[in-house]
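Quarterly update from the structural biology core.
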Amino acid sequence: MVRGSLAERDALNKLVADCDSVVHCAGLTRGVTRSQFNRVNAVGAVACAEAAREAGVKKILLVSSLAAREPGISPYAASKRAGEEGVLEAAEGHMDVTIVRPPAVYGPGDTEMLALFRLMGRGLVPVFGSSDARFSLIYVEDLADAVVAWQRASVPPAGILELDDGQPRGYGWSDVSAIVSSIIGRPVRQIRIPATALALPAALNTAAGLFSGYDPMFSLGKLRELRHRDWVCRSIDSQGIPGWTARYRLAEGLMRTPGWRDRRDRT
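Predicted structure, tokenized:
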């Protein structure tokens, strides 16, 4: 273990010394302003890439976010895109670069998605945006396996990879409702959450973040992300990671995710 931060170049140099490859998966998800997110998601990512380049590292994997596909939607998304562009520039001519844009990641140990799954486990599926919105998901073990497969590949895939669980066209809210219902053994009801009901708390959190130093998870930027209609992964400019395919669709992944079902559903 090397103690330090992305802002400490000596620590980064020690971290990447004598490495053949680097996986950069640090990221900031809570905040309000572009500068807050950039500090980790852009400047920090570039600092890691520069340290790796100077240490003679041969290849680097940047774990970005599907949000980077829509940089205008939020400060977080913009910072993720900036991190991608900065790492590509820092590595050009020196290292092979693979960028992975995962969609929402869930599974054991997750806290961000767990609250939503718990609500579903009680028979309620909140619909935050359009009823015809579609989105991809990936189980955490599948994403970890993808990183291992990248590490083992003799020739790392270049470019941007949007990795998901293999579900064609992703999921819609009706798909999620049916899957959850089949797991808990009772009907699940969709609840449409109007934009006005979410706008006020998002605005209050954003204001608190601007004026009090509070770093909210739910902000106006996050609200725009939640209400976006198309978060389905698609091929960008690569065929994928050699030797890797996702093993768990949502039904299997939820069954392997603890802590979200009512006790009566866990038999």
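The mean pLDDT is 91.
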